[in-house]
Amino acid sequence: MSNVIPMPRLVVRRGVSDDREAVVTLVEAVWHDTYHNHLPPKWLQQRDRQFFADLAGDPAEQGWVAELGERVVGYGRVAANCIDQLWVSAAARRRGVASALLGPMLASIRERGFGFAQAGCEDFNTPARRFLEAKGWELIHAEPQQLGAGRACDALVHAIKLR
Q1: What's the rounded Cα separation, in Å, for the pair 142 and 152?
Q2: CA nearest 63: which of 96, 20, 99, 123?
Q3: What CATH number does residue 90 fall under?
Q4: Pairing relation of β-strands 82-88 and 116-122?
Q5: Segment 80-107, tens digit of pLDDT
Q6: Is 2 inside any structural domain?
Q7: Contact at 8 Å (CB) between 73 and 98?
Q8: pLDDT exceeding 90 applies to what percent of the chain?
């Protein structure tokens, strides 16, 4: 007799307002993981819960949530023709979560009549850049940004045609 434990299934669904707390927690953790080596410590310490709540926005407004079992492991949101947010927990990366979120997000942009979509990331976010490039996104602009304490980066804008 086998004691097989079923693995949780990845589910991507439209966000609802009740997702807000889990989404803000996810965004805060991933943001710190992404930026902790690139921003001055003072800037990191100034980011409070309200900063992350504002950054995440309302999941019910053009948001998608990825759940693995009962855990929120990914979040994405669109604004106009832009992928405004795309966050995946460290434990769930390289498992198709971002790709699963991207599908309905791009479909939403296409359904609203846009012929192309845009997404951005900083030049130091190598995983995000590689993800976008692997999905066929093209770099269309780089904007220099000052991060404080003599640190700088380029904010990158990628675009993809929607078929």
Answers
A1: 12
A2: 20
A3: 3.40.630.30
A4: parallel
A5: 999 999 999 999 999 999 999 999 999 9
A6: no
A7: no
A8: 82
Closest C-alpha among 49, 89, 34 to residue 67: 89
* Number of Cβ atoms within 10 Å of the Cβ of 162: 15
Specify burial of residue 56 (Cβ count, 10 A radius: 0-12, 13-18, 19+). buried
Answer yes or no: is 1 within a domain: no
- Residue 103: which residues within 8 A CB-CB, separation 6 or more? 12
Between vectors from CA 44 to CA 77 and to CA 24, what angle results, nearest 5°?
A: 30
Residue 91: domain span: 10-161
In a domain, 4, yes or no: no
Domain membership flag for residue 135: yes
- For 118-131, write each residue's pLDDT tens digit: 999 999 999 999 99
The pLDDT, as a whole number, for residue 1 is 58
pLDDT at 67: 97
Looking at the structure of the chain, the number of domains it has is: 1
Tell me the per-residue pLDDT of 32-81, one tens digit each, with 9 for 90 and over.
999 988 888 888 888 999 999 999 999 999 999 999 998 999 999 999 99
